[in-house]
Design goal:
five-stranded antiparallel beta sheet, alpha+beta, about 375 residues
Amino acid sequence: MDFNVKRLAADAGTFLSRAVQFTEEKLGQAEKTELDAHLENLLVRAENTKLWTERIMKQTEVLLQPNPNVRLEEFVYEKLEKKAPTRMNNHDLLGQSMIESGGEFGPGTAYGNALIKCGETEKQIGGAERELIQSAAINFLTPFRNFLEGDFKTILKEKKLLQVKRLDLDAAKTRLKKARMADARAAAEQELRMTQSEFDRQAEITRLLLEGVSSTHAHHLRCLNDFVEAQSTYYAQCYQYMVDLQKQLGRVAQQSAVASVHHPLPPASFPSTFSNNNQSSVSGGASNSVPTIPVSASLPSVSAGRSSSTVSGGFNELRSSNGSRKARVLYDYDAASSSELSLLADEVIVVSSVPGMDSDWLMGERGNQMGKVPITYLELLN
């Protein structure tokens, strides 16, 4: 009992001396031991690392989940250590609406079929978005959060202990200055040596922890690379899905036009130099490279780079001469029947006019293959 009382009295005395030292420092009535410049710089770097890690985490969470109510709900589930309910994202909801409306209008109609195809693509993008969020949470946000809740809390703990040891050291210095009697002065010197040793030891521990922030930066750099890789994969997947959708919609529009007026139109998509040769595969993960869209890319038009009179004049001359000419294919074309010839953009074929054939069509030859081809997909060569 006596030992506990003495221990409590000693602790109270130590706490009081620290409080007095702290107050006198704030009032400018006592000297304060300054940390060395290297340690101060390490402390500033650690604080900045904590500050910017928090900001990057917050903005990443906003990017991945823009809805603040959903973020709050997920935070509550995380604190309760429960799994958040699975919910459809915006792409899933849009895709579902398109598919349902397409079914209502009829999958056999051009519009209904196009809506269903768009809806399926939106759902694919929704799935890719979930994969991005999962990857970012595991490989990017979790390591950042571990630093804030683990390493940095340890640094704060040791920093506070260093502050306590410094107050003890400065209080011992003050007592030594005030000591007049030889015995009191000897005791004060002994206390100063002990507090100086404890302060130096704690400063070394804190310094080692703070220097470990360099390893944290290296780790976060690897996490950043993982995040960029996940984003690259996501955007490459989305690009590929949309290019495939453009092709499907182009075929739907073309088949609809042929069925209604038998007058094929060029597909409503980007030029083949963008949609075919430069496509990247989404199955390659990090190796995906999103193609660069040419600045001059625009919706194709029969009149681009040549007047309609020149075009019609060239084909009229071909029909009147009953001869043949070489022609370059402007866009991909899928044959709608066995009497037609499928075309690939940029290939060169031989075309000729057949008496009695519709004015919108010519006879095309590629090697030993022959079939009708729409003139709106062709450019006659000199």
